[in-house]
């Protein structure tokens, strides 16, 4: 206590010989919050240089001990303040994390979705298992997380058996890519097959080197972090989003829209889980984030992309990527930390992140309002011109175009079984003809064997070919048996000849089948390229090298696609390398899949109509965004007013009963008051805009 009164914290509980100044610890805390890469070791090295003393490892250990004590003191003071303010009720932080989302007013305009959230996993914050990489076992530490950000492993493991892992040979395969080359069925099945974190549970393995393999979190649409859970010795298993959704539904209730990069597939998981009745009763709506949505199947986009979901507004629901872009900087300092110190660092980081998000909240609302007003003005003018040119009188026609496209895509199935049998029959006929030609060639060569002046080695080669004729005859006999079986199944009375109309038609369909396969392969590679492009601004990931290597593969796939496209009748459009590298939306590929029905004559598939439909949807979402922002601005302004009254009342009470605590509250309130003043001024400017309608 004597040391603390002098402004120091000792590095041992009894008889300390070394102490660290509280001011130094406070400076490091703020520096680490704004620069998470700054480690304690780097801070101590800096202090050593400032004081002209040599650095020793034990100095960093001593500083770490004092810093833990300092944070513990701050945490206990914070808990006392929360109790004084009445903020210590269960889930109070989760219920009040973002005033724009959760400070609901009695007479406000009802919204289709009560609030919008987003969730995702990230494996940057892995922590190594000390028992695996060190000679000695990890020292026991009974300290746990200090805050209610975390969902406990027990809460998460309630859902560990909700999705059963499938057994099979694929367990041993290596799934390096988020997108895999698998046949298309329905849109959601395609996403389940192609996205790594939507795939079977046994794919989501993690090296035994790591104890915690990352974090899974949920945030509101403004970026405030709501919940975090550790991914323990696994990839992104279904139990993490299931536990997160369960908690959000329990606390926030009905009519929630939740963005997830595999929201389409996860909706199926929810429907099969124990949460299904709760999800239906509370009308949870899963959505796929804007960026990830453009890498999904077109049919999936029409159901889950934010542009096509009424009520979402202009929210991209990709905020978790922005959260992770900041928290990734914590990784170097937490990779080899203890469990407690990792939790402590993560909590400190996200507490500061949330405070920063609150400080920027009015800026975010103002920017979104400005963008929405601009889009409404531009799209109304553009849409009027397009509607006049296309002869569209009523906006309901755009909804009809979307229904027609959804109906068309829902009717696309895997190739019919009879058609698959016809392809198999055609392949068997071709193989039998090739074997017959090979055998005839060998016989002809045998007749000429002794009539020519062959060398001994050439003669031996010809004799070996002649000896292979019986084996070829056996294969041809088996093929003929297969052909007869297929003819019975297909009801073919007369065998197809190369000149027959059935043979020619089937050959054309095979060419189109090969074209679609080539297009699928090209599409898969371009999607992988898009994923790599998102990482190019992250240092040390090796994404640039991977992209350069992938480009050669894309070029080969592009050549194969162009060759298959040219063989169709009529030939399909070929693609150039420039078109490929400029692609940003994978849905552009889907309209090249002309499959069994040519859609080019459908009105909804015409480029001008599609452009007008997109502009109509953008106008609708922008108008919804303005309606939501009008509500959120009013919530924020009211929350600021009510908070000021509540804190003033609490300060008066604490000044009488607990002056030191009142002093600490006043100190913290000064910053909040300054931030709220900026919010009020900025909201005043927004409300003065000519287009403001709140």
UniProtKB/TrEMBL annotation:
Pfam families: KDZ. InterPro entries: KDZ (IPR040521). It comes from the Eukaryota. This is CxC1-like cysteine cluster associated with KDZ transposases domain-containing protein. It comes from Gloeophyllum trabeum (strain ATCC 11539 / FP-39264 / Madison 617). The lineage of its organism: Eukaryota, Fungi, Dikarya, Basidiomycota, Agaricomycotina.
């Amino acid at each position: 206590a004597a040391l603390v009164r002098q402004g120091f914290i000792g590095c041992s509980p009894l008889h300390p010989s070394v102490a660290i100044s509280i001011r130094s610890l406070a400076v490091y805390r703020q520096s680490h919050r704004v620069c998470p890469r700054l480690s304690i070791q780097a801070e101590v090295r800096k202090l050593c240089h400032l004081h002209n003393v040599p650095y020793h490892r034990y100095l960093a250990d001593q500083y770490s001990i004092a810093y833990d004590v300092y944070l513990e003191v701050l945490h206990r003071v914070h808990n006392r303040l929360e109790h004084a303010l009445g903020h210590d009720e269960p889930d109070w932080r989760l219920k009040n994390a973002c005033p724009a989302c959760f400070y609901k007013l009695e007479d406000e305009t009802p919204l289709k979705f009560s609030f919008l959230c987003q969730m995702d996993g990230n494996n940057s914050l892995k922590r190594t298992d000390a028992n695996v990489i060190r000679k000695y076992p990890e020292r026991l530490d009974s300290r746990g997380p200090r805050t209610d950000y975390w969902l406990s492993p027990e809460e998460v493991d309630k859902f560990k058996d909700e999705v059963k892992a499938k057994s099979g040979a694929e367990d041993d395969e290596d799934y390096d890519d988020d997108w895999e080359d698998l046949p298309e069925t329905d849109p959601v099945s395609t996403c389940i097959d192609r996205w790594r974190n939507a795939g079977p549970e046994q794919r989501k393995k993690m090296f035994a080197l790591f104890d915690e393999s990352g974090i899974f979190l949920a945030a509101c649409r403004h970026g405030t972090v709501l919940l975090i859970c550790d991914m323990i010795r696994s990839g992104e298993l279904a139990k993490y989003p299931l536990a997160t959704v369960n908690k959000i539904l329990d606390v926030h209730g009905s009519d929630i829209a939740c963005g997830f990069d595999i929201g389409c597939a996860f909706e199926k998981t929810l429907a099969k889980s124990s949460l299904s009745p709760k999800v239906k009763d509370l009308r949870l709506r899963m959505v796929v984030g804007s960026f990830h949505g453009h890498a999904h199947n077109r049919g999936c986009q029409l159901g889950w992309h934010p542009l096509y979901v009424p009520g979402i507004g202009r929210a991209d629901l990709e905020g978790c990527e922005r959260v992770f872009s900041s928290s990734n900087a914590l990784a170097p300092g937490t990779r080899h930390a203890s469990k407690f110190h990792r939790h402590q660092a993560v909590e400190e980081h996200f507490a500061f992140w949330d405070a920063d998000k609150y400080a920027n909240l009015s800026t975010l609302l103002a920017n979104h309002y400005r963008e929405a007003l601009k889009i409404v003005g531009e799209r109304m003018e553009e849409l009027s011109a397009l509607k006049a040119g296309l002869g569209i009188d009523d906006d309901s026609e755009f909804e009809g175009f979307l229904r027609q496209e959804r109906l068309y895509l829902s009717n696309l199935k895997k190739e019919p079984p009879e058609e698959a049998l016809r392809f198999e029959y055609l392949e068997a006929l071709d193989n039998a003809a090739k074997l017959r030609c090979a055998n005839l060639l060998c016989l002809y060569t045998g007749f000429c064997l002794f009539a020519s002046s062959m060398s001994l080695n050439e003669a031996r080669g010809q004799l070996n070919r002649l000896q292979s004729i019986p084996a070829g005859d056996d294969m041809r006999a088996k093929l003929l048996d297969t052909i007869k079986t297929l003819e019975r199944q297909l009801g073919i009375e007369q065998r197809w000849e190369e000149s027959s109309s059935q043979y020619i038609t089937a050959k054309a369909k095979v060419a189109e089948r090969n074209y679609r396969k080539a297009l699928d392969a090209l599409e898969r590679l371009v999607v992988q390229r898009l994923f790599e492009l998102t990482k190019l601004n992250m240092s040390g990931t090796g994404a640039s090298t991977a992209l350069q290597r992938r480009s050669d593969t894309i070029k080969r796939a592009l050549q194969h696609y162009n060759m298959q496209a040219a063989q169709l009748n009529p030939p399909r459009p070929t693609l150039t390398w420039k078109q490929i590298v400029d692609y940003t939306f994978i849905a552009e590929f889907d309209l090249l899949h002309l499959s069994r029905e040519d859609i080019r004559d459908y009105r909804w598939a015409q480029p001008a109509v599609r452009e007008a439909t997109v502009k109509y949807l953008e106008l609708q979402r922008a108008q919804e965004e303005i309606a939501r922002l009008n509500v959120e601005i009013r919530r924020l302004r009211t929350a600021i007013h009510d908070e000021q009254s509540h804190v003033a009342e609490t300060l008066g009470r604490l000044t009488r009963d607990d002056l030191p605590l009142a002093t600490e509250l006043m100190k913290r309130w000064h910053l909040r008051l300054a931030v709220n003043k900026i919010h009020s001024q900025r909201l005043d400017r927004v409300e003065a805009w000519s287009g403001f309608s709140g």
